[in-house]
Amino acid sequence: MKAAEVRDMSALELDNKLIDLKKELFALRFQHAVNQLENPTRIKVVKKDIARVKTIMRERALNQ
């Protein structure tokens, strides 16, 4: 996910996306713990997506 895509989302969409990403990260960590994770780099990608979403949310909060 690119930062431009995140900036185009509404506040409600950002909240929903953040919840989905956190659920996905939890599932990936669980799979990693039981050695069933096929793509370990996916954890890093999801963490960065969470950071992007939180950054955009914070920028919007500071601008208001």
Characterise the protein shown here.
The protein has 64 residues and is an all-alpha fold. The protein contains three helices and no strands. Helix 2 packs antiparallel against helix 3. The protein is elongated. The model has no long low-confidence stretch (mean pLDDT 95).
Oligomer: single chain
Q: What is the mean predicted local confidence, pLDDT?
A: 95
- The count of helical stretches stands at 3
State which percent range the strand residues make up.
under 5%
Order of helices and strands: HHH
Radius of gyration over C-alpha positions, nearest whole angstrom: 13 Å
Structural class: mainly alpha
User: Helical content, roughly?
Assistant: over 70%
What's the number of extended β-strand segments?
Answer: 0
Shape: elongated
Largest sheet entry: none
As residue ranges, the low-confidence spans are: none
N- to C-terminal distance: 25 Å
Summarize the structure.
The protein has helices at 3-7, 11-33, 41-63. With 64 residues, the protein is mostly helical.
